[in-house]
From TrEMBL:
Keywords: Cell cycle, Cell division, Chromosome partition, Cytoplasm. Belongs to the ScpB family. InterPro entries: ScpB_csome_segregation (IPR005234), WH-like_DNA-bd_sf (IPR036388), WH_DNA-bd_sf (IPR036390). HAMAP family: ScpB. GO terms for biological process: cell division; chromosome separation; DNA replication. It is found in: Cytoplasm. This is Segregation and condensation protein B. One of its GO terms (cellular component) is cytoplasm. Participates in chromosomal partition during cell division. May act via the formation of a condensin-like complex containing Smc and ScpA that pull DNA away from mid-cell into both cell halves. Homodimer. Homodimerization may be required to stabilize the binding of ScpA to the Smc head domains. Component of a cohesin-like complex composed of ScpA, ScpB and the Smc homodimer, in which ScpA and ScpB bind to the head domain of Smc. The presence of the three proteins is required for the association of the complex with DNA.
Amino acid sequence: MAESDFLKKFGLSENTERIKGIIESILFAVGDGVDIKELSSIIDIDLKELKSILKDLSLEYEKDNRGLMLIEYNNKIQLATKPEYSTYIKKILKPESKQNLSQAAIETLAIIAYKQPITKVEIDEIRGVRSDRAISTLLERGLIKESGRLDTTGRPILYCTTDEFLKYFGFKNINELPELIELKLENEEE
């Protein structure tokens, strides 16, 4: 079967395959997430058509022998390597050893994720201890960011999660956070 016959059989056009190549080139070159609307504008195709092509491209990457995948977060799309190949990538990149997040940093990150935007004082009140070091660590790792200031005495800094947080935990957006068990129990008691 000739390539053009194959493409027609599955409702694809040579143009669609070319667009996939353009998408791959852009995502590879950028290396970070690209806004889907911006990508649509750059390629000069309808947003609905782009999303259809991205879905098709994502299915192609899901094949066992492919080393790449598409990840989506906050209406951005990014080309990434599959997690199962991370050991090989680590061997060649030899990354600096990063320590895991401390329990305090994990607690602080969870509080920020569920209560954002939130001030340091509010975080400290919830945890019952100071969170300066945990906040500093999370800022350094790019998992949280300053998102403005509260309009009150002292104008405390507000913190929220970042796109890096979404990528790290595999969420498309903040609404995908699991429901808190504590809140679920309170609702059941009522």
